[in-house]
Amino acid sequence: MLSVENLTLHYGQSQILHGISLTAEPGKVTAVTGTNGVGKTSLLKAIAGRHPYSGGSITLDGKPLDHLNAFQAGRAGIAYVPQGREVFPLMTVQENLETGFACLPKSEHKVPEHIFELFPILKDFLQRRGGDLSGGQQQQLAIARALIMKPRVLLLDEPTEGIQPNIIQQIGRVISQLRSQGDMAIILVEQYFDFMWGLADSFVAVTRGEVALSGKAGEIDREALLAKVSI
Q1: Which helix (H) or strand (E) holds 102?
Q2: Which Pfam families has this protein been placed in (predicted)?
Q3: Which residue, 70, 71, 68, 77, is CA-closest to 26?
Q4: pLDDT tens across 147-198, in order?
């Protein structure tokens, strides 16, 4: 289980996160939501080692992760699918996928077939450049690249942003399938309320860098959560 306790984060003199706490369990989707600019992406960057946090702690199965950089976080089993996808535009789909090998031993430097079962279109486009893909195809590639790392924790930042409806549905099915495997904790940052509501096992609503509301599916009030997203 991933545990975040009292996390604070600054950009220069500006404090962005004010004591955020949450947990993410294997076989569960934890949704983090809120309006633009409240610190959701900063939270994921801190967990993924993309930006140093100022205080608090991040632990995985009780082991402190202690201000890891991105490579160390990847080696620890944390994979990050960033907002905007960050696909390498001049590299082929095959080469983009192979960048996921960086955190794996050389004996595991092979794209597993189940990646193409989740995202069949990628197998047809292996020699196409990442920058030539549509937004939805790039999103599939970004998620596939993260899965090649064999993560214990998968961080998804706005995976539906700018994506056509049929690809959104496919991404939802992939997230459900990954959850059902039971060995991966998924943290989903999302503003598309119905998508998030239909997938998540627990919810964390963030306002001004603080947790404004949290609870498990079935216990949290839908309208109260929606109000926090719509502020």
Answers
A1: none
A2: ABC_tran
A3: 77
A4: 999 999 999 999 999 999 999 999 999 999 999 999 999 999 998 999 999 9
User: For the chain, what are the domain ranges?
Assistant: 2-89+150-229
- Give the global pTM: 0.94
- Cα(148)–Cα(106) distance, rounded to whole angstroms? 13
- Residues 88-106 as b/e (b if ≥16 CB within 10 A, e otherwise) read eeeebbeebbbebbebeee
Beta bridge pairs of residue 185: 153
Pairing of strands 2-11, 185-189: unpaired
From 3.40.50.1480, 2.40.160.20, 3.40.50.300, 3.30.70.260, which CATH number describes the 2-89+150-229 domain?
3.40.50.300
